[in-house]
Structures are given as C-alpha cells and as structure tokens.
Amino acid sequence: MAKRFWLMKSEPSSFSIDDLRQKKTTLWDGVRNYQARNFMTNEMKVGDEALFYHSNADPPAAVGVMTISGAAEPDPTQFDSEDSHYDPKATPGRPIWYGVRVKFKSKFARPVSLPEMRSHKALQKMVLLQKGSRLSIQPVTEKEFEIVCKLGSKKNPESKK
DNA sequence: GCCAACGTTGGC
DNA sequence: GCCAACGTTGGC
C-alpha cells in the first residue's frame, strides 16, 4: 500500500518539535477524539509521514516532519488516574484510546505558519484550513505535504517579492 | 432519538 | 481572555 501523509497537532508548551528531536521517538499519546484515534488505529501504517503542527502557538505553524514508526498501541495515560488524560471507563483489558509511535525526521528551516498556508492557493483544501476544523490528527494529500515541506525548506520566502 | 447543556479546542 | 465551532453527555 502506498505511503500516506498526515498532520498531527501538539501544543509546543506540552510537547514541541524540539522535544521530539531530542527524544528521537515518542508514543503519540493523549488523543481523546474518536475520529483522530480511528485514523491511528485503522489507517496509519508504519512508514507513513506526518507534518508536526504547533497548535496554540504564536504563530500556529507546521514545523517539521516525522515518520510513523510503530503501529497503534494502547495509550497508557488512559489508565493513570494521576494523568490529565485519565479515562475511568478504560481498563487494560478493554482500552479505549490508542497512540502510534512516531520518529523525528526533520525540523523545517523555518515554520510554515497557518496564515501562510491559508494564503497558498494549492493548500485551500487542507483539512486544517476548513472552517471549524479541530481534528488533531488529519490526512493531508501528498501534494499538500510536499508543498508545505518545500515552503519550510526555504529560508527567505518573502524575498521573492 | 432529540437536543440543551456543558466541556474542549484552538485561533485571534 | 474571548469566543466560535465542535464533540460528548444525559434527561426526556
């Protein structure tokens, strides 16, 4: 099956691209939305690539790329009553929430901000840009993925003016 | 099954 | 800090 592309959000105040770069790999935990979970359990494959997106940041932006390195597994934070993601309805025998393992691939030379993506003609259909879209894990097309990566690899996007 | 109330996300 | 949009819960 062909490689697919994703966008995954994290608030940099809790986990940033630099944290991932340092750790190299992490379990993408804390997802508590069924649609986002289903992407991880049903659709993601090891080897897929994802844009790392900083939400609630200034500015919100795509900041790098990671690789899906491990299939979905139960998210341990759902069982931990001390954790803010604790879910009392979940048990180890019947987990509700899952996470995939991700591996750092690259950090962009510069962030590709939300307004920049919004102003880009070829990115208009990105799930991220749709009104009211809050999905923390979402598919992106290969083309969208490539465009964002290309924008992120340029040091001086404004110089072409 | 409907829908009001509530909690959360996330841009601004 | 505000608030629009969304998802979930629970009464009926």
Q: How would you sum up the global shape?
A: globular
* Poorly predicted parts: none
Query: Care to count the β-strands?
Result: 6
Rg, please? 16 Å
Per DSSP, the total helix count is 4
Give the class from helix and strand content and strand pairing: alpha+beta
Strand ordering within the main sheet: 2-5-4-3-1-6
- Report the biggest beta sheet as strand number plus sense, adding barrel if it closes: 6 strands, mixed
Tell me the series of helices and strands, N- to C-terminal.
EHEHEEEHEH
CA(first)-CA(last) distance: 41 Å
Strand content: 25-35%
Overall pLDDT confidence: 93
Task: Describe, in plain words, how this protein is organized in 3D.
The chain is α+β, with helices and mostly antiparallel strands and 161 residues long. 21% of the residues lie in helices and 30% in strands. The chain contains 4 helices and 6 strands. A 6-stranded mixed β-sheet has the order 2-5-4-3-1-6, with helices on both faces. 31% of the residues are buried. The model has no long low-confidence stretch (mean pLDDT 93). The protein binds a DNA duplex (12 and 12 nucleotides) through residues 9, 11, 32-35, 55-56, 59-60, 114, 131-134, 136.
List the helices and strands and how they pair.
Elements (H helix, E strand, L loop, with lengths): L4 E6 L6 H7 L1 E3 L6 H10 L5 E6 L6 E14 L23 E16 H5 L18 E4 L1 H12 L8
Parallel strand pairs: 1-3
Antiparallel strand pairs: 1-6, 2-5, 3-4, 4-5
The protein binds a DNA duplex (12 and 12 nucleotides) through loops.
